[in-house]
Please model this.
Amino acid sequence: MTTPWHLWVVGVVTLLWNMIGAADFIFSNLRSPFWFEAMQYPPEGISYLDAFPFWARIAWGMGTIGAFLGSLLLLLRSRLAVIAFALSLVGILLTTIYEAGAVMPPELEAMQPAWFPILLWSVAVFLLIYSWSLRRKGVLR
Model:
């Protein structure tokens, strides 16, 4: 089967989108000063990230790195994209559960618009359904 044009559009746009999340996870966990400065993380925000328990940090990585790999695998037309996006959703779910019980500093809350979690979940669910549909149609090998 030929590759539909929309796979390239979705793949490239979501690769760029997911690259931001993956970069945030990597540079935040490396405690990169340039990243904290560029993202304007307040000291309270850095303390909040440092307080993440191990399981929540792993979940955050699953959500961000899984989504990035999923978009890359989508562009490579690999059926493994479905698994990567599914793992990403599990990571997002676990991170959401942790954040629901944690007290986020007001300085950090002000940085994230209220609509952002809705957008994040919408994109993640879309990518899982989209990749699963392409796999069923034989586009992903």
User: Anything to note?
Assistant: The CA atoms of residues 41 and 108 lie 8 Å apart. The chain has seven helices and no strands. The first helix runs from residue 5 to 29. The radius of gyration is 16 Å.
